[in-house]
Amino acid sequence: MTRTPHDAPGTPVLPRTRPERLVHLLSRRRYAFLALTLLVTIGLGAVGTGVFGKLSGGGWTPADSDSARADTLLREHFRSGSPDLVLLVGAPGSVDEPRATAAGRRLTERLRTDARVRHLDSYWPDADPALVSRDRRTALISLRLRGGEHEVAATAEDIRRETATGTAPLEASAAGRAVAKRDLEKQSRHDLVRAELIAAPLVLLILVWIFGNLLSALLALSVGGIAVVGTLAVLHALTGFTQVSVFAVNLTTALGFGLAIDYGLFIITRHREELAAGRDVRQAVLVSVRTAGRTVFFSALTVTLSMAALLVFPLHFLRSLAYAGMSVAALAGLTAVLVLPVCLLVAGDRVAGRRGPPPSAGVGGAGVFYRTARTVMRRPVLTVVMVVPVLLCLASPFQRVEFGLSDDRALGAASPVHRATDVVRDDFDSRATAMASIVLPGLVLPGLTGTPARSLDDYARQVSLTSHVLRVDTATGSYAGGRPLAPPTPASARFSGPEGGWLSVVTDAEPFSAEGGALVRALRAVPAPVPALVGGDAAALVDTRAVVGERLGSAVAIIVLVIFTLLFLFTGSILVPVKAVLLNLLSLTATFGAIVHVFQDGHLRWLVGDFLVTGTTDTLLPVLMFCIAFGVSMDYEMFLLSRIMEEYRRTGDTTSAVAFGLERTGRLFTAAALVLAIAMAAMATSPLTPLKLLGVGLTLAVVLDATLVRMLLVPAIMKMAGRANWWCPRPLRRVHARFGVSEHEPRAAVPGPPGPRDASPGERAGGGESLDVTRA
């Protein structure tokens, strides 16, 4: 028996599902509820603004890795490792001239007596040759500061500002991780404001064009505002327990407005269709919650659980972005299905606008999306053969990906911190790079105290024989090529202490390169008197890549399982979830290939904005993009499937159902993709390379998904599958009958191997076995 997708316009619509009953209950006190929502949003906004002073610029490496432990021991017990602040002090002539020397000593003494400074290494007064440039016009002062991460960053900023003047005839500039973190946070906040100023007017104009009136556009934007404000408050609360990355706020804004406007578009569009069909406002709201609201719920749940997959990585950077993505997706979904329907009740028929709903394919109003679907389904194999090679071509550069980690170059070429660090790279001896953002390998030997000096001497000789090692310095002297280079000096005492000892390794290998990784593995293989810990940037990259590789399979498995389970519960089909996962993997691989081509190889910088080419791709950003894009792409999949299933339930014809579904949702998900792409592209205007890469990558992923995948590959593959789209084994059919929560009722094929063709009218009348997925 043919059933309509929902109650006919002439019949009363009663609340049947829990969301409908809740909306019905809230509607009785609609003005009080909206006033309370406004007050809570204002309160959350006041709390959320406090997050900006508590964000972290770190969290890119595992906190319990060998490299992290080594760097902690170097910093806390040996006054070494990466300094918080490095001052590059330049003189008009030589730094050894009397006036420059006197000014340098005064500056050094002033900083040495500063209560905020824990330890200081300066060219003055000992004239350490490692702390002066080759042309002897610039010297270094390296500082380690007291306090936690935020106190250190604030102190570094104060010292940078204080030394910018009053040091004549010297001129000081700053490098080091503390000022890099401070600049990263400031630039991130500046980029957030700029992205909002760029995206908000464009998004509003697009929404007004789509809806035909300002009120509907503002209602859709309000969903995003509530979700973003609430998430900022959640992130502020989380800073009391864990590190929250500076990029979490940028992701919250871009993803929050993109998702929330998607959800608002879907519900408002469905509400307008019901109004146009003759329902009154209350009936239209309830039907919209019952149909579109259910799709929004599944979509928000999918994005939330996809972002939760990032929690398997023991990296504060990814985990804080997971918290941001989970919070904003969940709040966007809740706001769309609870607050927005009440707003529509208050707005009445003023949201109807001038534009009617998209033409219905089933009534003969064939629009551009209907014609596209019909054209594709006439030649489905040809479409697949033409589109898939394009995606594979885009994906091909991913074969040569070289992974690295972000350093000062992520700040951009105009950054003073990057320019200062480049001076150290180019003009100083290789030992001095340990005084800037690049950390040379350090071999820490905890518990070395009491070990004979002969053992340390032998170990240092063996380390100096390692490929790419230029020199080794330790308590027993300096070594090169397996031989002593210099005897120990009074300064060598810094290589030993109550906690053990350590060795400084000077190398010519770039930290974020294959040679750097090979060096770390070789150093770890050298037999040591006691278990050795290798620190430095190269070791941090090796440890990060190891933990990402170890946990990546679990994250992918979680996402695939979530997508498959939710789509199965949504559709009652086995093939549809498999198709969705495979197409997502294909489009995302194409995106990753394009990212390597642009950001690793340096092509098309004129198109995406200038950035520094390092020859590597950040290890963590593809993982983050994978989780975000996989979840977001399910938005469009579920929007499209919901209308395809609705028509298939009515007619039993896959071909007409796909054309109808694409016609009904094509303009909708195209507009939603455009809105999300604008939000992500606005983020890509940042000079910060991680934000630019993330923005460009997600923009491309959304565009590919909404065009090549959703408009071409999905209709082609569903046409090729025919009635097999809705096939489900009997045991799983019983599972779906109990737990499925879709509103629609597609028909399953008869038991046995499904054929590729659609069911005939006779089969639709009685030959097939109905798969009921209408449980709420």
* Computed structural class: alpha+beta
**Coarse shape:** elongated
Major sheet, described briefly? 7 strands, antiparallel
Low-confidence runs of at least 5 consecutive residues: 1-5, 354-365, 742-776
Q: Fraction of residues in helices?
A: 55-70%
- Please tally the β strands and state the result: 15
Helical stretch count? 24
Count of the separate structural domains: 4
Average pLDDT metric: 83
Rg for CA atoms = 31 Å
Distance between the termini: 20 Å
User: What share of the residues does DSSP label as strand, in percent?
Assistant: 5-15%
Explained architecture:
This protein has 776 residues and is α+β, with helices and mostly antiparallel strands. The chain has four domains: 18-54 and 182-404 and 543-723, no CATH class; 83-175, Alpha-Beta Plaits (2-Layer Sandwich), CATH 3.30.70; 440-535, no CATH class; 724-770, no CATH class. The protein has 24 helices and 15 strands. It has helices spanning 18-27, 30-48, 66-77, 98-112, 149-163, 177-211, 214-238, 247-276, 281-290, 292-308, 316-347, 368-378, 380-395, 416-427, 453-464, 514-525, 537-571, 575-600, 605-608, 621-651, 654-683, 689-721, 730-739, 761-767; strands at residues 85-90, 117-122, 138-145, 171-175, 403-404, 442-446, 469-474, 477-480, 483-486, 496-497, 500-507, 533-535, 617-618, 747-748, 769-770. Strands 6, 7, 8, 9, 10, 11 and 12 form a seven-stranded antiparallel β-sheet that branches. A four-stranded antiparallel β-sheet has the order 2-3-1-4, with helices on both faces. Strands 5-13 form a two-stranded parallel sheet. It is elongated, with a radius of gyration of 31 Å. Residues 1-5, 354-365 and 742-776 have low confidence and may be disordered.
